[in-house]
Amino acid sequence: MSSKNLTRKRSPHDFVFKQELGHGSYSTVYKVFDKHSVNHVYAIKVCSKAHIIKENKVKYVTIEKNTLNLLARACHPGIVRLYYTFHDEENLYFVLDYASGGELLQLLHKMGRFSESWSLHFSCQLIDTIEFIHSKGIIHRDLKPENVLLNRFGRLMITDFGTAATPLNQQKQEDDQNESPRCSSFVGTAEYVSPELLLSNQCDFASDIWALGCIIFQFIMGVPPFRGKNELQTFEKIASLDYLWNNQHYSSNKIDPVIIKLVQKILVLNPQERLTLTNMKKDEWFDKVDWNNKDHIWRGIWQVSEPAYGSSNGVGNGINNGISSGSTNGSTGGFPPRQNLISNKPLHVIDTPIRSIPITKQKKKKPTKVSNTTSSIVEWRKKLGISLQQAQVPSSVPINNSKLVVPSPPLVPQPTSTYLRPAVSPRLMPSSTTPSPSVKRSTSQPSLSKAAPSHDDLYRPASSPDDPNITDHNSNSHNNNITVNTTTNNNYNDIHRPKTMVLKQDYVNIFEIPFKPDGPPMSLESYSKINNDIITELVSKFRPELKSFSKSPVLSTLFKDGTLSYKNDGFSKHMVNVGDPDLSMYDFEFYEQKNDGFLILEKYKYKIWFISLPTIPVTNGLGPIVNSDENWVDCFFRARQIMDEHKTVINKLKNVHLDEPFMALPSPIESRPSSSNVNDSIKESAAISRKTQISDKSVNTKTSTFTESTSQVVRNVSSPPSFGNGVKRNGQKNSPLTLQPPLSSPAMVNQSKKMGYRSPSSPIYVRSPTLSPQSQSMKKYAVPNNMVISSSRYEVLNALKQNSGTNVASSGASAAFKNLQKKKMNQHK
Ligand SMILES: Nc1ncnc2c1ncn2[C@@H]1O[C@H](COP(=O)(O)OP(=O)(O)OP(=O)(O)O)[C@@H](O)[C@H]1O
Question: Using an 8 Å Cβ cutoff, are 550 and 690 in contact?
């Protein structure tokens, strides 16, 4: 390139525009060649001025340009470098490093998940880059694998600084009174948004670290840690730290506990307690990393051994195109020099006239991006009862490297502290129920009034009718899109949920303690086991309160689908689904003599409810009290049992096989277990429960610390995902089970069709409509073992062909059936 070319202002005519690389919310990105040096390839981001103005994106474009300009000077390898900017009448142009390796997310999708060595390597590059960005006083605020690109060597480059917070733009925001509405400061992507941003509109350097924690988790697991069915659910998961390491993916190798521990230290709700980058670099996982050896850290990923699933799967597509990156021009500022990649290939250059470049109107490819997330956050906060003012308070983002003192997110249990919150109206609470002194509360934290409902109040909009007798509660809770029940293996909530009916409704005292137990690394196995120590400790700690809280009973309702909610002062609150495998239930005999026990529900990770019957009889006639003769414990397990039965039936439908010549299918009458059967199963479960108790020494040792008036933990019912342990209380009987509507043959067939069970391996077998009287008497609803009905004609023909060994199938399914029936009838004669 001549010196004249180097100094003059660039224009679109200096480049040959090749293919479109992608487009964002206000731009389209093209691969281009420098006409004056065809070996240099860049990416040009073209932003239509009209579109930017129309879509109110001026702020983002300005931020992006300023931030990239600021960062470009240091030539950090982990940042997409901005080389030139220019504009013409219609467009703004950013000439950037060309990232031929595409988005890191694409690579992750191709691989499923990264091997540990790749995860480590990418994490090192991310840490090095984020540290650099932060050292410039910049917070990225939208870190996620989509915003990380790869160059041809597989080195990562962070991009998309449109929502970054820099000294420059922050100052501008503060100065400008007419800045866009405050919700515009909610930035980010739902899955990676930090709890402090969600709950108190705080964002600092630690928020990027939160996102980094999510990304590391995603490297290992293939999916981000917090992902609900919708944004609101995602937020709920974030705020309750509800994520799960699923070892199932790793058939032989378990996830390294060191990684789990590291992520655990990063995904901490309180940003002040979150791991800093400095400490992260000292973590055990990075033991072997020499942070000063930039050459080593910035090796391309293709040089790192052990790609998890082979490299022949298309990974790295486009990386060997023989085209140099534009960055060959620049110095690397102390980082390993980028290789000179001059290609000898003649280039097939198509010179697209710049004016004809279409600026594609945004086809919204990322539903979770800023604007949607913004409105969801607003909605979520509203439901949570966090006022906008409250969330607004600290509107400025810190611009230096010192850590911002962020008030603890309101109403989110702090990792190490416990505070007590009455479920009943605060005015009725004894003074001793005020927060424990150990709790740090920010001044902006909402009071314990109705204006500041807890987390779970969001489960039902205040305006929605919630009387289960009037409304289809099922659809309500579903439409709100929030359920407490968020575990992966609990799919029976999603499929075939029965119309909700009230199983039990009664006035009870509910006492709620949010908590976060310290425990072993997150795993469903470890937490689904009941934790007697925690329960015992909490009961001891709050005993005075527990004794006296029975002053303001609330109407509690247990629905047939397992949903438990209560209503107080007209305010309805969803608590939990009793079918949640993360829920432990205890029947705690607090005052044995008075038979005034507590039912304790321990919701994995963040909450405990104590429920007791009111000592004062409720006679206010506020609503129906149904099923009051059945105790809560039995009722909970009945709900579970119903759900479980339902699940079992559905599972059976999936794969019903006939091992014997005849098989009885559930009939409307026979499928209902007789009460003795129920009792048998309950007895059996109770026996298992007793065994559990005996083997669990902590129960006995811990409860012995109680005073005489407190009995031992007499019932201790864990929460297996499968079946409730029908524990009975003194002198009370179990109600007979009510099952779902019976599934007759056509219903089964319809159901199977609905559920898409069409695999040849699992045809549906049903009873024959034309059995001989003899066989009818032998066994009701018996079917010939060769009888096959399936929604797939192919399956029927195939199955019959195999079974008969003849070519009977060729004459068609109905002929085959007739043939078969005839054969069977003859056999029975
Ligand atoms: N430097 C680059 N090299 C190669 N491809 C790029 C480069 N920059 C962007 N792309 C591709 O172009 C797409 C659009 O990028 P752009 O920065 O305009 O939008 P975005 O960041 O994805 O979205 P938004 O602007 O809404 O945040 C990206 O998804 C990426 O795949």
Answer: no
| pTM, two decimal places | 0.47
- Domains, in order of start, for the chain: 11-98 (3.30.200.20), 101-174+182-301 (1.10.510.10), 502-647 (2.30.29)
Rounded CA gap, 272 and 276, in Å? 9
**Best mutation site among 17, 21, 108 for ligand 1 pocket (most ligand atoms within 8 Å of CB):** 21
Q: How far apart are CA 650 and CA 290, in angstroms?
A: 55
Does the annotation mark 142 as catalytic? yes
Are the beta carbons of 163 and 42 closer than 8 angstroms? no
Residue 437 C-beta-side C-alpha neighbours within 13 Å? 0
Q: Which two tokens stand for residue 420?
A: 């007590």
How many other C-beta atoms are found inside a 10 Å radius of the C-beta of residue 368? 19
- Give this complex's ipTM: 0.98
Determine which residue's CA is closest to atom 11 belonging to ligand 1. 22
Question: Rounded to an integer, what distance in angstroms lies between the CA atom of residue 825 and that of residue 829?
Answer: 6
Q: Which residues contact 54 (CB under 8 A, 6 or more apart)?
A: none
8 Å CB contact between 809 and 816: yes
pLDDT in tens, 491-542: 222 223 334 678 888 778 787 766 555 543 333 343 344 455 666 666 677 7
* Both structure tokens of 516: 């976060």
User: How much is the CA Rg of the chain, to the nearest whole Å?
Assistant: 32
The three-state secondary structure class of 734 is coil
280 token code pair: 């992260």
Nearest Cα to 673, choosing from 644, 705, 698, 635?
644
Q: What is the number of other CB atoms lying within 10 angstroms of the CB of residue 781?
A: 18
∠ CA 811-813-818, rounded to 5°: 85
Q: Which residue has the least CA distance to atom 22 on ligand 1? A: 24
| Nearby residues of 710 by Cβ (< 8 Å), 6 or more positions away | 539, 543, 590, 591, 703
Report the share of the chain in percent with pLDDT over 90: 20
Helix ranges (DSSP H) in 313-465? 370-384, 388-392
Q: Is 433 in the pocket of ligand 1 (CB under 6 A)?
A: no
